[in-house]
Amino acid sequence: MIDWERGTVVSIIQEREGYQEIVVSLENGELERAVHYPNIGRRLHRGEQVYLNTTAVRLGLGTGGYHFVAAPEKKGFIDQSPKGHIMKLRYTPYQMRILAVEEEAHPAHEIMKEASTLEGIPVVAAELHSMVSAITATIAYLSNGKAKIAYVMTDGAALPLALSHAVADLKEKGLLTGTVTVGHAFGGDLEAVNLYSGLLAARHILKADVIVAAMGPGVVGTGTRFGHSGVEQGQVLNAIHSLGGRPIACLRMSFADSRERHWGVSHHSLTALSRVALKPAWVALPLLDENKAGYVEKQLRESGITRGHRLVTADGSVVKRAAERYNVSLKTMGRPPEKDPEFFLSCGAAGLVAWGFCKRRAFNFAKSHVRDSWTNISVM
Fold first, then answer.
1. Do 172 and 361 form a contact (C-beta atoms < 8 A)?
2. 335 CB contacts (<8 Å, ≥6 apart)?
3. What is the tens place of the pLDDT at every residue in 219-254?
4. What structural domains does the chain harbor?
5. Is 0.90 surpassed by the pTM of this model?
């Protein structure tokens, strides 16, 4: 069931490519916030009447308090998409055509015809979108801004990439070389039919030295072992392995979350690595105090992860210096690093491990000033 309401655009708070954040006056006189995606139709202006999907806000779900514009009352839609033949959001009223990198009409079609391997580059598989900024900033900092970092966004959560303020900020600061949206996710610099093509496009078209792969904002969880969108992390690791990349798992870790299932290493990560990932990955572990490290080690051992994967410890505190260097805002579930330090230490560790593989590939990052190190503690 969908809750529909009508409103009038009172003001436009913020806009960028593919995104408008507006204030609407509802029929009951209340002023509320809404998001509109011009890529689906056209840009909105003050005074226009719009139809709104208000379902999530009325249910009290974590959408940031925003409604979503379904359509302006006066149509006037303009097809702004490239002239491709691949449909995303298929068989819905919002299905749109995009020009996918795999299509013959795409300039990179010949490249994609030949692409079949990631050529050994590191790919960090992250579960939550809030990890993307921390991992990306860490790699950029460690490489002194020279690493080409691509973000591949899956369709496990939000589908429009434009919804991500984090990605917009990373691109504005030049920390991301480019983005790829795969499956039904849309709005990236490149569009791909599936995860495999998306990863290959990041390597062979964007020329990425390292890739961060994660869903967009809006993780779904139910408290059951498999009933959460985080299981896709295992599927992403499988894809990286099968394409000849270096799969690196960023653990969802917290000692601040009030929910027992997310204490230490989240059950999301434990399930993805122990039951979904079919081949060994490098699992990045941050340096923790003795008690917390012991708790995490027990979780990984009991879940079988220590037997099935390669564990690597790294000093994830580098993430703090990276965030300060680039003025990147870090937050997860509303908590900043000082409220949930282990979450971001885990992201920093994953970025440091990825950078370690970059250096092993002998990329020429001249006069690197970074002295951080990472050490294998268990390679199996």
1. no
2. 256, 343
3. 887 878 888 888 999 999 999 999 999 999 999 998
4. 4-72 (2.40.50.140), 109-378 (3.40.50)
5. no
